[in-house]
Design goal:
Shape: globular
Number of strands: 11
Mean pLDDT: 96
Largest sheet: 7 strands, mixed
Order of helices and strands: EEEEEEEEEEE
Strand content: over 45%
Structural class: mainly beta
Distance between the termini: 40 Å
Low-confidence stretches: none
Helix content: under 10%
Length: 119
């Protein structure tokens, strides 16, 4: 059974940092591009970052480029999102996604982890 489990969310002050983790199981992790999406209240879910199978290619939303870094460890079936210089606008539920590309989300989703950036 495919499973994606996010962790690492929480409440952080503007300018702070968080590191999100996604633990994957039930599929051949190394063959899948992995992505982070987020959905803020009242807004559409959007792609934040994507990393391809062997970390050769990464892509980021313009709003997070330079602040967020996606990485993966294929030996551990883990994907991470390091978030620095957080802004209130980054507040959202963050979801791990497997099997997508820049234009289309993959079929597998985690349950999400809440990130709240507030003073």
């Amino acid at each position: 059974q495919v499973q994606l489990v996010e962790s690492g969310g929480g409440l952080v002050q503007p300018g702070g940092s968080l590191r999100l983790s996604c633990a994957a199981s039930g599929f051949t992790f190394r063959n899948y591009a992995m992505s982070w999406y987020r959905q803020a209240p009242g807004k559409e879910r959007e792609l934040v970052a994507i990393i391809h199978s062997y970390s050769v290619i990464t892509n980021y939303a313009a709003s997070v480029k330079g602040r967020f870094t996606i990485s993966r460890d294929n030996a551990k079936n883990m994907v991470y999102l390091q978030m620095n210089s957080l802004k209130p606008e980054d507040t959202a539920v963050y979801y791990c996604n497997a099997g997508g590309n820049f234009d289309t989300a993959g079929a597998y989703w985690g349950q999400g982890t809440q990130v709240t950036v507030s003073s």
